[in-house]
Amino acid sequence: MSIAETIAIGSELLVGGRSDSNSLFVADALAAIGIEVRFKTIVGDDQSDIAGVLTTACRRAKIVIMTGGLGPTVDDCTREAVASVTGFRLARRKEAFESMRARLAQWGRTPNRGQLRQALIPSHAVVVPNPVGSAPGFMLTWRNARMISLPGVPSEMQAMMQQSVIPYLADRLNRSKQACSHPITRVTFHTWGLPESDVDSKLQGLIQKRTPIALGLLASPTEVLVSLTTRAHRSIKGAVLRSLEEGVRTRLREWIYAEGQDTLEEVVGRLLQRQKLTIAVAESCTGGLIGYRLTQVPGSSAYVDRGALCYSNQAKTDMLAVPARLIEQYGAVSREVAAAMATGMRARAGVSVALSVTGIAGPGGATETKPVGLVFIGLDGGNDDVTAKEFRFHGDRSVIRQRAAQAALDLLRRWLIARGEA
Amino acid sequence: MSIAETIAIGSELLVGGRSDSNSLFVADALAAIGIEVRFKTIVGDDQSDIAGVLTTACRRAKIVIMTGGLGPTVDDCTREAVASVTGFRLARRKEAFESMRARLAQWGRTPNRGQLRQALIPSHAVVVPNPVGSAPGFMLTWRNARMISLPGVPSEMQAMMQQSVIPYLADRLNRSKQACSHPITRVTFHTWGLPESDVDSKLQGLIQKRTPIALGLLASPTEVLVSLTTRAHRSIKGAVLRSLEEGVRTRLREWIYAEGQDTLEEVVGRLLQRQKLTIAVAESCTGGLIGYRLTQVPGSSAYVDRGALCYSNQAKTDMLAVPARLIEQYGAVSREVAAAMATGMRARAGVSVALSVTGIAGPGGATETKPVGLVFIGLDGGNDDVTAKEFRFHGDRSVIRQRAAQAALDLLRRWLIARGEA
Q1: Ranges assigned E (strand) in B330-414
Q2: A181 min Cα distance to partner chain B (Å)
C-alpha cells in the first residue's frame, strides 16, 4: 500500500481564514489510482519549517506532494527547502526556463528577476511542465520517498496533477504491481431530516465485524453525510459493497436526497425536467438562497421561471397578492401566509409549482409566540394541492437560512417523487 | 515566542472534499493572544497515525490543539492515542460524566454505551467543559508541550476555545511573561476591481527592507486581499503600522471596499442606513445571490424591500415592466435591458434605489456577439440617475455569478459614496 502525504505551503493558510483546498484535490486524485493520503500538513513560508515537515513526511510516507512556495517572490522558498533537505543543488534548468519564457511571451512579457528564480530546479529532479502558468514544478526521489513539488495556484496545480503526476504515479505503481489494482472506493449518501444520532441508530449492525469496509457519518448544517469506504480488491469488494449500499438505501430510503457528487438542486432539477414542470419561488427569510441554488445548475433556465424575494409585507402583497388582512391576522411568519405566498406566486407566474418560505432567521424579530428559527414552507402544485409545513431550526442567522432553504428544496423533492409515482 | 500546532482528526478530512475549518478558527483565536500556529496537521481516525503526529507535534510546538475524534463511536480514538503517547491511563472522570448526563437529560436522553466512553479522560488531565454539546474536552502537559483535545463539532469547539482554552492560555502566558504582550497584529484590506498584479504594482516600495511587517496579497474570485502582519511589540509597531495602513489606503483608495472582518454587504447596508435609503434588486444571471448577500446582514429588513429573480423573459416583463420589444431588439443580456430592469424595479417597489443584473453565466447561452461572462449591471437612483455598465468575467458558471454579484454590490457602494459626498 502506498501512503502519501500532502504539504500545503503558504503563511496565508495558517492564519486569517484561508483554507487549503489543494490537498483535497490531490487526495481525491490519488485515491482514484489507489494511493491513500494519510497525512496532510500545512506550513508557512519559512524555509526551516518547510524543511522540517518535509523530513517528517519522507519518514512516514512514500509519496509527498507539496503545493505552493514556487512563486517569484522572496517568501517563496520551497525550492530552497527541498535543496537543503536532500542536499541536491539548485541550478537553472534549461527546459524550465525556455517553457517559462515562451509562456510569458504569449502574455507579451519577459521574465523578471523573480521569475528567473522559478527556473531553478534541484539536481536529480525531473521538471513537471506547467501547461497553464509560468512556474514549473519538479519531482525527485530521495531516500525511500518520491517528492513532488507543484505551484499553489489551484488551476495550475490541478492541470499538472492530471497531465503529469497522476499518469506518472499510475505507471510506476503498475510496474511495481502495487496498489493500482486496489483503488480506494468511497460511496456517499447525502441525507436530510434525521439527526446524526438517529442516522447512526438506523445503521446499527449494518456492517459485520471484519468486513473491510468503513462506515462514516458526518453532520453539517444542511446534511448528514453517510459514507462507505474500502480499499479491498475490486472483485472481493464489489458484491459486499453493493449489498451494503443497498442496506444504507433501504434503512435511510426517504432521507437520502442524493448520492455521490449530486446536489439537492440537481436532483430537484432532474425531477422537474423529467415531469416537464416549471417552478417559481417566493422567499422571505431565505433571502434568495433557494433561487440561487436552483439556478446554480447549468440549464436550469429550462424550468426556473422566476423568484420573488419579498422581504417587506408590502412586497408580499404587491408581488404575490398575499391579502394584507391575512398578514395582519396571522402575522407574516405563519402557515397561512406561507400557503398564500405559494398560491400567489403560482398564479402570477403561471408555473406548474411554486415554493415559498417565511420565517424568523434572527437574531432580532422574535416574539413571545414566534421564536427565532420558526419557519413555514409552502408549496402549491395546482388543483388545490397546497401544503404548508412548520419547522423549527437551531443555529445562527446563517445556519437557519441554510437549513430553511434545504428543507424547502427537500419538501419539493418529496412532492415531486410522490407526484411522479402517482 | 509560543509556537502552536493544530491537529485536525477525522478520516473525512483526508479524502472526499471536506475541508478542515476548525484549524482556521483555532489559529485566529490563538493569534489574538500572541500565539502563532506554525504547523497544521490533518490525520485520519487511526490511533497509531494520531499517536505519530502527536509525538511529532510535541517536539516542534509548545501548544498542541487537537480537534475531533472525541465522539461516541468506535472510530473516535483521540483519547486512546493521547493515552498511548503520554502513558497516562484513561479512566471515567466524574465531573465529565455528570455534566454529560445533565446535558443529555436536557434533551430527554440518557447516556448510551458510546457516550459513556466520552467521559474517559487521561489521568493528569484537566476536563474542559462543553457548554454546547455532550462531549467534554481535556488538557494536559506532557514533556514540554501543552496538549489540548476538543471535539470536532465547530460550534462546540469554538465555545470551548472561547470560554476555557483562550482564557487559560492567556493567563499562563501572562504569568510566564511570554508572548502575550506581543500579540500578532494583522490588518486586512479587501479590494475589488484591480487584478492581483496591479494591486502588487501599486504597493511596490511601500514597505522598507527590515521593517518587521509583512505585506501579503491573496487573490480569490471575489477579491484581492491585502494584509499587513506583524508581531513586533505594540509600542514599536503602532506608529509604523498605522503609517503603512495609511499607505495602503492611499494607494488603493477606491478599490478597498472593506477592512478587517467587514463584508461588502455590511458596508453597503451601513451606507444605505446612514442615507436613509431603501433598496430593491432585480436579478437574472446571479439568480438571487445579491438578495441573499444583502439579507445576510442582521437588521437588513430596515432597508431591503424586495428582489425579483426574473429568469425568463416573461418574468422580466411581468415583474419589472421591461418592454418585450426592448428584449427583442437588444436581447435580454444588454445594457438597455439592464437599465430597464433597474428602472422597472424602482418604480414597482417604490424604493430609493434599484440594482439589476443580466448576463450569461454559461456554460450554455452564448452567441457570436455575446460570450459567456458578459454581464450588464444597472442602477436606478431616481431623478433620471440611471446607469448600466458592461463587464466581462472569466471563470466557470459559479465564479462568473459570484463576480457579477460582487461587481453589482461594489457599483452600489461607489454610487452610495458619491451620493453621500455630493
Answers
A1: 353-359, 374-380, 386-392
A2: 19
Rg value, chain B, Cα: 27
| C-alpha cell belonging to residue B73 | 463511536
C-alpha grid cell for residue A410? 427537500
Using 70 as the pLDDT threshold, list the residues of chain A that sit under it: 1, 16-17, 176-182, 232-237
CA distances for A258 relative to A262, A267, A382, A404, B226, angstroms: 6, 7, 26, 18, 39
Enter the ipTM. Answer: 0.79
Report the CATH fold assignment for A185-259.
Answer: Alpha-Beta Plaits (3.30.70)
* Chain A closest-CA separation from residue B329 CA (Å): 21
Between chains, do A49 and B39 touch, taking CB under 8 Å as contact? Answer: yes
pLDDT digits (tens, 9 = 90+) for A103-162: 888 777 788 777 788 899 999 999 999 988 888 999 999 998 999 999 998 888 999 999
Calculate the dihedral angle through the C-alpha atoms of A52, A53, A58, A64, rounding to the nearest 10 degrees. -140
Name the residue ranges covered by the structural domains of chain B: 2-181, 185-259, 264-421
Q: Which H helix or E strand runs over A239? A: helix A234-251
For the entire predicted model, the pTM comes to 0.80
Question: Distance between CA atoms of B275 and A286, rounded to whole angstroms?
Answer: 26
Q: Mutate one of B158, B209, B285, B309 to test the A interface: name it (highest A CB count within 10 A).
A: B309
- Domain A3-181, CATH among 3.30.70.1130, 3.40.980.10, 3.40.50.920, 2.30.30.30: 3.40.980.10
CB contact burial B85-108 (16+ within 10 A = b; e otherwise): bbebebeebeebbebbbebbeeee
Residue B408's H or E segment, with its range, is helix B397-421
Q: B2-181, superfamily in CATH?
A: MoaB/Mog-like domain (3.40.980.10)
CB A81 within 8 A of CB A47: yes
Query: Looking at chain A from residue 75 to 94, which residues have their Cβ under 8 Å from any Cβ of chain B?
Result: 75
CB neighbourhood size of A168 (10 A): 15
Q: Domain A264-421, what architecture?
A: Alpha-Beta Complex (3.90)
Other Cβ atoms closer than 10 A to B226:
26
Verify cis geometry, omega within 30 degrees of 0, for the bond prior to A363: yes
Alpha helix ranges (H) inside B21-118 = 22-31, 47-60, 78-86, 94-106, 113-117
C-alpha angle with apex B34: B29 to B38, nearest 5 degrees?
80
